[in-house]
Amino acid sequence: MNRSGAWTITIVFGVIILIPSLLGFAMKFGELITLTKNVSDSGGFAITPVVNYLLASLGFFCLLMWAALNGMFRDLEQPKYNMLENERELDRNV
Amino acid sequence: MATLTIPKTQSVYTHEELVDEKIIKWYFAAALTFLTTSMLAGLLVSLQLIRHNPFAGIELFSPGRWRMVHTNAVAYGFLANGFLGCLHWAIPRLTLQPVLDRRLSWFIFAAWQAVVGATAAGILLGEAQGLEWGETPVWVDPVAQLGLMLVALNFGTPIARMKGPMYVTLWYFMAAFIWTPLTYAMGNFIPEYFVSGTSAGAVGGLFIHDLVGLFVTPLGWGLMYYFVPILIKKPIWSHGLSLVGFWGLAFFYPLQGIHHFLYTPIPMFLQYGAVVSTIAVELVVTTVIINFFGSIWGNWSIVRTNLPVRYFYTGMVFYFLTCLQCSFQVTLTFQKIIHFSDWVVGHAHMVMFGVFSMWIMGMMIYLFPRLLKREWASQSLLEWHFWLSTVGLAVMAGDLILLGLFQGWSWAALEPWDASTEFSVPFWAIRAIAGLAMFGGLIALITNIFKTLKAASANA
Ligand code: HEM
Ligand SMILES: [Fe+2]
Fold it and tell me: What residues of chain A lie within 8 A of the CB of B94, using their CB?
């Protein structure tokens, strides 16, 4: 498998995963907003875990952005070769 | 892929300066001690279920308590110790940086054994905390919490000191070091001191879920991304795809805890949310599996010749099976039948033993000869260990999963409860026999270690 093949697979899977999950998420988020508007018990209850989740995800989102801006994903496949090369270096004298 | 320019990231440290081999041996010894304890506890409980408990009536041997010893010793005593041992090998070699402080490593080692030992003693003396998977007595919780934070500090430092793009393993490890202390704090302190009722139930569900997905899973997969390429001498098929798996876990996993509590008074709204994001995670899991099978494609004979690789890929097959099972389990239709049945117990053994224990065994089998500077004393004992474990687990899981369906259907048909415990006994007997086989596998491994040690010292 060459690089462009790996890329195609990555993008295809990215799309397969992201589209349904983003749609589902948007739908559920809409429901949450309507729920909390009718100030019922269950609306208030639901907002705690969801806000929790959004805060935690915000942290990860910042990390993702930081990593991207710092070139962590620039040469996407390089780390896997470096890793094996380091292993060979370390085991040279064994 | 012909012209590769690998920038030299030469280590200024040698392997000996990076890796504390002694502590790894001690972690593995502790892990195997607790696994032995846990399996004996499991066997005791399985004898109780077939009404042959040899210690009936003795409070200290109460099966209710030994069941908690079984699960706690396996999670915190075996899996955690096994992982910590492997991390002491993998992290310094991946980052080319030693851990923050070797004395801190030893302090953590001692503290962790004290935590697990005190947990077992506390549970046996009737001091368990009333939280699933958080049975650690309340007076042990703060120590365990501190220990987890020190682990994050000791291993987080080399990762933070590393320069350049990170390999996927380190992404997983870094996340696990952040998630595990947070998960532990959430599960052990919030329902105990801050919330109650359904809210506490929801937090408890998130805790047991996150313990599997944000502690065991990232460490397990992180280690596979490290050891598999080394052993098959080929890089992972696609590093990009592996990062999709990592970020997918980070974003989709935390919302699913409530899938353990479908049909409870938790608002249906949240239950549906958990179902949807669980299905999203199944897709992420598939990318990870595809990546590993893509890496070994065309090279399958290595599974026959290389035992650690065989353990790793057997674990991955079980991983795929458990996740496939999950995507059924998470639907309300299935929950109606299987909830509270032995299906769940079958599932739990398939994932905890079939996947993560298999991986730890594979890593131990690779690392022991390197740590002891000596080949394994007996190849046939190694093979016995593998086959007794694999066949024993497959029989146990298949038996319990099938039994779970029969129990669920019996309850759905409103048959009396006693009827279901009656027809379960033969299935439970098969589980006890399968458990004996798995235990036999462990004995084969331990015998082999002693033989190897003896040969090593004879040669020294
Ligand atoms: C000698 C082998 C083993 C035997 C005989 C055995 C037996 C048992 C029994 C009788 C239970 C209680 C089930 C119930 O409440 O009805 C149990 C629960 C459990 N065991 Fe084991 N076990 C063995 C090995 C293991 C290993 C090696 C692991 C993990 C690596 C493990 C993980 C678990 C888990 C996670 C549960 C809790 C299941 C739940 O709550 O749904 N077991 N086991
Ligand atoms: Fe879960």
Answer: 83, 86
Residue of A nearest to B96 (CA): A86
Which residue, B220, B240, B224, B243, is CA-closest to B232? B224
Q: Which of B35, B48, B74, B132 to mutate to test the pocket of ligand 1 (most atoms within 8 A of CB)?
A: B74
CA B338 and chain centroid, separation? 23
Name the minimum distance, in Å, from the CA of B63 to any CA of chain A: 35
State which amino acid sits at residue B373.
Answer: K
Instruction: Point out the residue among A25, A49, A90 whose CB comes nearest to the CB of B270.
Output: A49
Cβ–ligand 1 distance for B352 under 6 Å, the answer yes
- The range of the structural domain enclosing residue B30 comes to 10-164
Would you say the C-alpha torsion B21, B26, B31, B35 has a positive or negative sign? positive
Please indicate, yes or no, if residue B24 is contained in any of the structural domains.
yes
pLDDT tens string B289-329? 999 999 999 999 999 999 999 999 999 999 999 998 988 89
* Biggest alpha carbon–alpha carbon distance for chain A: 70
Asked whether the beta carbons of B288 and B245 are under 8 A apart, the reply is yes
B67 Cβ below 6 A of ligand 1: yes
Contact B6 A90 (CB under 8 A): no
Could you say which ligand is closest to the alpha carbon of residue B212? Answer: 2
DSSP B166: P
- Looking at this predicted complex, what is its ipTM? 0.88
Q: Report if residue B326 sits inside a domain.
A: no
SS (H, E, C) A26-41: HHHHHHHHHHHHCCCH
List chain B residues with CB under 8 Å of A30: none
- The stretch B390-414 carries a mean pLDDT of 97
Number of domains in chain B: 1
Quick one: closest CA in A to B240, which residue?
A: A76
Phi-psi region of A54 (alpha: psi -120 to 50; beta: other; left: phi over 0): alpha
Which of A45, A50, A82 comes nearest B9 by C-beta? A82
B261 belongs to a structural domain = no
Q: Which residue has the tokens 């990870």?
A: B288
Q: How many Cα atoms are found within 13 Å in the side-chain-facing hemisphere of B371?
A: 24
**What is the number of the ligand closest to the CA of B392?**
1
Domain residue extents for chain A: 1-37, 42-94
pLDDT tens, residue by residue, B45-74: 999 999 999 998 999 999 999 999 999 999
Contact B357, B80 (CB under 8 A): no
> How far apart (Å, rounded) are the C-alpha atoms in residues A58 and B435?
44
Q: Give the Å distance between the CA of B79 and the centre of ligand 1.
A: 14
B142 HSE (CA, 13 A, CB side): 1
* pLDDT over threshold 80, residue A39: no
Residue nearest to atom 31 of ligand 1 (CA): B349
Residue B166: other Cβ atoms inside 10 A: 19
Type of residue found at B11: S
Asked if residue B43 has its Cβ within 6 Å of ligand 1, the reply is yes
Q: Is residue B327 part of a domain?
A: no
